[in-house]
Amino acid sequence: MTLHATSPIEGQKPGTSGLRKKVKVFQQNNYLENFVQSIFNALERCEGERLVVGGDGRYLNRDAIQTIIEMAVANGFGELIIGQGGILSTPAASCVIRKYPSCGGIVLSASHNPGGPDEDFGIKFNGPNGGPATESMTEVIYRNTQQITEYRKADLEPVDLDKIGEHKRGATLIRVIDSVADYAELMQQLFDFDAMRALISAGNFHLCFDAMHAVTGPYAKQILVGLLGASSDSVINAEPKEDFGGHHPDPNLVHAAELVDRVNEQGLDFGAASDGDGDRNMVLGNNFYINPCDSLALLAAQSGHIPAYSSGLAGVARSMPTSRALDRVAAKLNLDCYETPTGWKFFGNLMDAERITFCGEESFGTGSNHVREKDGLWAVLCWLNVLAATGKSAAELMQEHWGVYGRDYFSRHDYEGVDSDAAATMFTELKQKLPTLAGSAYAGLSVEQADEFSYTDPVDGSVSQGQGVRIFFSTGGRIVLRLSGTGTSGATLRVYYDQFDAQQLDLDPQVALAPLMRAAEAIVGIQKHTGRAAPDVVT
Ligand code: G16
Question: Which of 107, 176, 229, 500 is the most exposed place for a label (fewest CB within 10 A)?
Fold first, then answer.
């Protein structure tokens, strides 16, 4: 019996990156099955198709994969490719989907959110280009979840996910593959491994990569230690754990404190961390934090040192809240620079149409057209390749960059677990005010323009409205406000500040941005609405 009756379950609307909920929510009867069948029903066909499946190894990953296998077999898929141990980092999944032409892939992850029985789980569908499902696709999936009446699931012997090999279940071939090999091969096609190996083995360059007990451990060990010769203790927290060792696998100064301390105390030359599913990155020089917006701009400016990009970039893109440092590089290099809504899915069309090569987001995401996801380890290799080619330190490179382009001070303030109604009221009031803001001064800063960001995809003409409020000031400063689409409880308010300065290049960003923060309070009344005197997380 493969056909099972079911009924719609509320709240299965994918957010910025798939469906993310508490594990307990996913464990409800039929919850996973309804969503997976809704994905399959959104595909043109399943019969005979190839599907890639993997995840970041968090709690529920293995059980969910066995369920997906049973459903994929019952839905008639021809072949399933699954990472060994159920492990595929998000960029590796994208790489595998592109290498072995597939109708797409299912990636199980809640990214940088914590894992464990009481924490978060997630599921997202990536299309045949290897990128996150487009908005139109996620809308169809969501509609399907609201109308579902049955799902298909076979009763099968569990597949041994730990051994590389092939299995047959019904008419479906199931291939358990090495989680790292295809990705490592792709990296070797992009970068100058000889130069990076020479830098690392010369003995006077020391690095540390923090895998945060998450998915990148095996990838970093094979590439940084195995292929580039870094010492084995230079990759820390390298074993993927179901609960990420009880930590948030979120590569920022707060959650990757162990890395920051190690880099600074041991005087290391370079430090980096990645997140739960391996698509985010944070990079550090010695006692020197590199903001993701600056990292993106610098890598675009220095991309000529990297073999895969040495003949030039087609164009670049950033999400709207990301600082405009990238735009300055694009202007100088005469490149098109696109501004998209938050969410990696918006870069896919631009890459497929060969309009952009590099793109990134303030949320610790950097990537290129080598896959259709942001890629943490790729960003680390970009930096190592540039460091090897220039012989300069990360801090020197960044300071020289600011000397040429000026500095876009940037900071994001997050208010987590805010009451959803209070957040909605705040935005309703703010949106009503928007038309009246231009020409007025708040906390001494005069507003030049204020609007709500809307994006028209230049490739397919699709329109995405309501993508965040922007307030521009005559000083060149900008405030952006939006609600996160990745949280799992209450509302998370994100307030982004950026201010260009061509003269003063070494201020503390919180100091440089303080006037904008006062203006935000005067315009929006963040304290009044959220009841919070200060943000929970500052990046
Ligand atoms: C996801 C998306 C990113 C987005 C980030 C934050 O990243 O892939 O494009 O910038 O969420 O989104 P929000 O501000 O809506 O929470 P990840 O690494 O969590 O998959």
Answer: 229
Rg (CA), the chain: 23
Class of domain 183-405: alpha beta
Q: Please name which of 481, 483, 468 lies closest in space to residue 418, comparing C-alpha atoms.
A: 483
Q: Which CATH architecture has domain 407-538?
A: 2-Layer Sandwich (3.30)
Mean pLDDT, residues 276-284: 97
* CATH class given for the domain over 2-179: alpha beta
* Domain segments of the chain as ranges: 2-179, 183-405, 407-538
**For the segment 185-210, what is each residue's pLDDT rounded down to a tens digit?**
999 999 999 999 999 988 889 999 99
- DSSP H stretches of helix in 191-279: 193-201, 216-220, 257-265
Q: Is the CB of 327 under 6 A from ligand 1?
A: no
pLDDT at 58: 97
From ligand 1's centre to the CA of 417, what distance in Å? Answer: 17
Nearest to residue 477, comparing CAs of 436, 434, 518, 506? 518
CA-proximal residue: ligand 1, atom 9 (nearest): 343
Instruction: Kindly report, residue by residue over 85-124, the tens digit of the pLDDT.
Output: 999 999 999 999 999 999 999 999 999 999 999 999 999 9
Residue-wise pLDDT tens digits, 208-222: 999 999 999 999 999
Q: How far, CA to CA in Å, does 33 sit from each of 40, 64, 140, 186?
A: 10, 9, 16, 33
Task: Please indicate whether residue 281, judged by its CB atom, sits closer than 6 Å to ligand 1.
Answer: no
Question: Quick one: pLDDT band at residue 1, thresholds 50, 70, 90?
Answer: low
Provide the whole-model pTM. 0.94
Return the pLDDT at 490. 85
Asked whether this chain's domains 2-179 and 183-405 adopt the same fold, the reply is yes
Please state, as a whole number, how many other Cβ atoms lie within 10 Å of the Cβ of residue 24.
Answer: 12
pLDDT score for 487: 75
423 by DSSP, 3-state: which?
A: helix
> Would the CB of 17 count as within 6 Å of ligand 1?
yes
Average pLDDT taken over every residue of the chain: 96
**Distance between Cα 344 and ligand 1 center (Å):** 7
List, by residue number, the catalytic residues: 111
